[in-house]
Amino acid sequence: MCPQCHSPRHEHGNLIASRLFDGGPVPVRPPWPNDWAIIAPRNRGLPGYDDAAAMRLLTEGSIGRDGKQLREPMPRFHMTKQDAADVIVYMRLLK
Fold first, then answer.
1. H or E, element range at 51
2. What tens digit of pLDDT does each residue of 1-14 get?
């Protein structure tokens, strides 16, 4: 599901296949006032995350590099260590 928010879309709202994981505007917003993220950063290769920080992100509820909870709509991941390790390897291969 990562590309749904972390990829730009063309004028018809479809993902731009050649730019998956390059970041872009979050395509949905709730109708109430909130601190919802409006831009999703590039996550191709997990820039700025070493393996330990990436593991924490995916296993401890979406904790960012700075140790703070990431803003919604970022899912609160609680993956197993093996699932998280597999995702980290995959994301690093996308460089």
1. helix 51-59
2. 899 999 999 999 99
Give the range of the structural domain holding residue 65, as residue numbers without chain letter.
2-26+45-93
Residue 50 in domain: yes
**Structural domains counted in the chain:** 1
> Going by C-beta distance under 8 Å and a sequence separation of 6 or more, which residues neighbour residue 14?
none
Asked if residue 91 has pLDDT above 90, the reply is: yes
Average the pLDDT over 7-23 and give the result.
96
HEC sequence for 13-31: CCECHHHCCCCEECCCCCC
Does 33 map to a domain?
no
Reading phi first (left if > 0) and then psi (alpha if -120 to 50, else beta), residue 47 is in: beta
CB 87 within 8 A of CB 58: yes
**What pLDDT does residue 95 have?**
78
Q: What is the pTM of this model?
A: 0.88
